[in-house]
Write a structure and sequence with these properties.
The protein has a domain at 7-46: Pemi-like Protein 1, Chain: D, CATH 2.10.260.10. Helix content is 24%, strand content 15%. It is built from three helices and two strands; from the N terminus they run H-E-E-H-H. It has helices at 15-20, 48-51, 64-72; strands spanning 28-33, 39-44. A two-stranded antiparallel ribbon has the order 1-2. The protein starts with 14 loop residues before the first helix and ends in a 6-residue tail after the last helix. The model has no long low-confidence stretch (mean pLDDT 85). InterPro entries: SpoVT-AbrB_dom, SpoVT-AbrB_sf.
């Protein structure tokens, strides 16, 4: 697959590639340069929607002061 670099240095990824990587508008990617000079494109597809429900709900609401105290203590809550 080929792509052309625009005057602004932008590249449009071919649709086949976007579809294969499940990339949509606004998704982010990382470019890694390998030792042999090749470039690897890595999709970063963690959506805030994907994170919903990944943390346990607190048993009670937590105050700002409690959050700040936990941050100062390294998140240990002690």
């Amino acid at each position: 697959m080929d792509a052309i670099i625009s005057s602004k240095g932008q590249i449009t990824l071919p649709k086949v590639l976007r579809d294969q990587l499940h990339l949509t508008t606004g998704d982010r990617v990382t470019f890694l340069m390998e030792e042999d000079g090749s470039i690897r494109l890595i999709p970063k597809q963690v959506s805030i929607k994907d994170l919903k429900g990944s943390l346990p709900k607190p048993e009670r609401p937590v105050s700002i002061e409690e959050m700040e105290r936990a941050i100062e203590q390294g998140g240990s809550g002690q």
